[in-house]
Amino acid sequence: MVVKYMRTAKQCEMLAWASAQIHCQFHASENRVALPAQGNKQDVQAESETVLIPSRGERGQCVLDTPPKILFCDLRLDPGESKTYSYSEVVPIDGPPSFRGQAVKYVYKLTIGCQRVNSPIKLLRVPFRVLVLQGMPEPPFPQDEEVCPSNPFLEEEEVSRRDSRPLERALDMLMVTTSRRYPHMFNITNMRGKVAKFCIFKTVYRLGEDIIGTFNFSEGDIPCLQYSVSLQSEEEIQQQYQRRPGQTPSVTGHGRHLESCLHTAFSHFSLPIPLNVTPGFSRDIVTLRWRLHFEFVTAREPMEPPTVLQNQSEVTVWAGAEHVDVDTFSWNLPIKVLPTNPALASYVSQFTGTNTITI
């Protein structure tokens, strides 16, 4: 934080105090979420008060806040003089991730409050993003063993110090979990018979990874004319908080691959997971899940492929049938989407922002 006196007058300026605090605001859609009634809570900051209320004037409920930290008190600035102050804080590990869904929102903000002598409090709110690592399985190795391959150029003290850091430890476990690959095979069938065999090499991914899958239509009995694969997130409100009984989850698409595959023996798709989406998580009010949504269009009758003679020298043009009786069906494959390294997630926004408060 940089405090600068911008006036050209010759008198000095006195600032009473400044403090910083992190808070998370929760907002729910009244059409989809039924929250328990709460009493009237005053969040209005009187001009004569000197107590910082970071969530003053914000929509929703404050579900998390850190203790305020004083940046300075009784600061005197001469004309043209500036002072710089630093602030650091640890976000509680039990907090929700940043999330902007159709039914609920979790928004993190850093609020800086400052007050001149005999003046009202001024607030500056800086939004930021929080990634939460949830649902990590127990490590398949003893806790006293290293997760990553040992580096002979690192001293033992440095290695033990690195393993003791929660962030590095979590990133190592995240890398191990999402790096395991072995083929998952699925037979795609409908009421008329087998359509194809589908193969995917893993079902746990990090933000920014590509989801790759392959189809083998040569083993199918039913001709497939077209298929599509969509990456979707499913936002489900817990039953006790649903506005209507049997309320369906909200589904959001994040990418789609569409391909025509008649007379195709093999096909594949690649869907990237955006860096700006929220990984799967579960709270007492909402649960976010991820899935691949498949849609297939198949023919009801066998369709013979065009025949090309071996000694034919001219180009053969094959015209498709004008009318085909088809069936359509869909299938959902659950997957897990986990966070990634915060340094990679920050690539979504490459610019440096500057926030200003005038008091």
How would you characterize the overall build of this protein?
The structure is a single chain. By secondary structure, the protein is mostly beta strands. 7% of the residues lie in helices and 40% in strands. The chain has helices at 156-163, 166-179, 342-345; strands at 2-4, 13-28, 61-65, 69-77, 82-84, 99-100, 104-116, 121-128, 184-190, 193-200, 204-206, 210-216, 224-237, 250-260, 266-272, 281-282, 286-299, 326-338. The strands form 4 sheets. Strands 2, 3, 4, 6, 7 and 8 form a 6-stranded antiparallel β-sheet that branches. Strands 11, 13, 14, 16, 17 and 18 form a 6-stranded mixed β-sheet that branches. Strands 9-10-12-15 form a 4-stranded antiparallel β-sheet, with no helix packed on it. The longest helix has 14 residues, at 166-179. The radius of gyration is 29 Å and the shape is elongated. The two termini are 14 Å apart.
Give the tags.
elongated, 359 residues, 6-stranded mixed sheet, mainly beta, 3 helices, 6-stranded antiparallel sheet
Count of DSSP strands: 18
How many H/I helices? 3
Percentage of β-strand residues: 35-45%
Global structural class: mainly beta
N-C termini distance: 14 Å
Radius of gyration: 29 Å
Low-confidence stretches: 39-48, 137-147
Order of helices and strands: EEEEEEEEHHEEEEEEEEEEH
Oligomer: single chain
Report the principal-axis shape: elongated
Q: Largest sheet, described in full?
A: 6 strands, antiparallel
Helical residues, percent: under 10%
Pfam families: Rgp1
Protein name: RAB6A-GEF complex partner protein 2 isoform X2
InterPro entries: Rgp1
